[in-house]
Amino acid sequence: MRQKRDPQQRRDTQYGHKIFLSGGRSGLILDCVISRGNPADAVMFPDLLARQEAIYGRVPARTAADGGFASRENLRLAQGRGVKDVMFAKKRGLGVLEMVQSLWVYKKLRNFRAGLEANISRLKRAFGLDRCPWQG
């Protein structure tokens, strides 16, 4: 993995873990997956969806995901498992009406995702979820 120099710390920054958070209608963070390395978001989408199904006994009716998760394959997978509306922040060649039932639903899910981003930002600022010095 490529290392970057951190001018403030005067040492090499090493990247080793990536956090995936899932939130619910209330805005509460419902699940957290910490993966080793830096896997592509699109590769993790099927596992995260399966995890939601395992925890709650069903897939969510609607899901809003970051643009890195967007792919035609992930859209088909989610719809095949019973997710009615899937909103990716970046379309990556997908049409809005392919992902969701209407433009109104797309906007609602987009705004919901923006709210979750605000909660994640608060976690970073208030609780120090910015940098993790874990080893091993």
UniProtKB/TrEMBL annotation:
Q: Which GO terms describe its biological process?
A: DNA transposition
Q: Which GO terms describe its molecular function?
A: DNA binding; transposase activity
The protein's matches in InterPro entries, at most eight in alphabetical order, are given as: Transposase_11
Q: Which domain of life is it from?
A: Bacteria
Q: Name one Pfam family in it.
A: DDE_Tnp_1
Q: Which residues form the Transposase IS4-like domain?
A: 22-135
* UniProt name for this protein: ISNCY family transposase
